[in-house]
Amino acid sequence: MTPAVRVPASTSNLGAGFDCVGLALDLWLQARLVQGAGPPTYGGTLAGLDPRHDLIARQLDATGLAGGWRLTVHSDIPVGKGLGSSGAAVVAGLALAELARGATLDRERLLARGTEIEGHPDNVGPALFGGLFLASQHPARLDLARDVAVALAVPERDLDTHAARARLPREVPREVAIAQASRAAALILGLTQGDAALIAYGMDDQIAVPYRKDLIPGFEAAVAAGRAAGAYGVTISGAGSALLGLCPPAGAAAVAGAMAAALTAAGNPSRPLTPAVAATGLSVG
Questions:
Q1: Which domains are present in the chain?
Q2: What is the rounded distance in angstroms from the CA atom of residue 234 to the CA atom of residue 239?
Q3: Which pTM does this prediction carry?
Q4: Cα dihedral: 136, 141, 146, 147 (round 10)
Q5: Which residues on neighbouring strands pair with residue 140, listed in sequence order?
Q6: What DSSP state is assigned to residue 277?
Q7: Distance between CA 224 and CA 250 in Å, rounded?
Q8: How confident is the model over 12-70, as pLDDT tens digits?
């Protein structure tokens, strides 16, 4: 049996849960190792990828397992949109290397290694465990309330994660830190209990969004449109360029459409997307 894995997308930096709260999404990267020679092949959103820039191949090279195997990858995860494409690739590469050696997958160890490589536990965690994930001293998969759904507006243009991270302040005032802590606690409680008011309060990030929002033309209009269409709250997905709205399941299409239309009207062509939350993370076979 050839090693094969399936890894979900993720949305991270959920509001005040910056760098520590993420959600797995029902958009998948599939990767397989086939014995034999030949260059890697890529399909879906990774079609045409240069293997030198592939994080999966990079992990295989680092473990000395690239030789003797041919890598095939297909992904439905948009790249450069803040939807965890790099986190999924790192997880896939690490898992394939373990499987090729005949090892049993240890998700906690993969989380530690993946976070060290990729730098974002709020992407790597959901990719491994699925669902709502809190990066803490131990992996924490939480139960997302059933009446919370995801609505996305995905721009055509990408946004470089490193450029977005360079916007972050090195220091924040004490009152901002306190406000962020309060909102992060409210967010977790709201997401697990389905409390719209707590989610709205917790989605108002105080640290990253104020410094990044001008990188996304039409941001303010899209936030207003999403809320008017029924979103509990709207924020930047990961480092962007996609926007994320959390809302009742019945309103996801309307929220995604309103946000995408607002971005497009501002000269930032975008499409709506309403993936389900992926209940499972990394799977084998």
A1: 4-142+278-284 (3.30.230.10), 149-273 (3.30.70.890)
A2: 14
A3: 0.93
A4: 20
A5: 134
A6: B
A7: 19
A8: 999 999 989 999 999 999 999 988 878 899 999 999 999 889 999 888 887 766 567 88
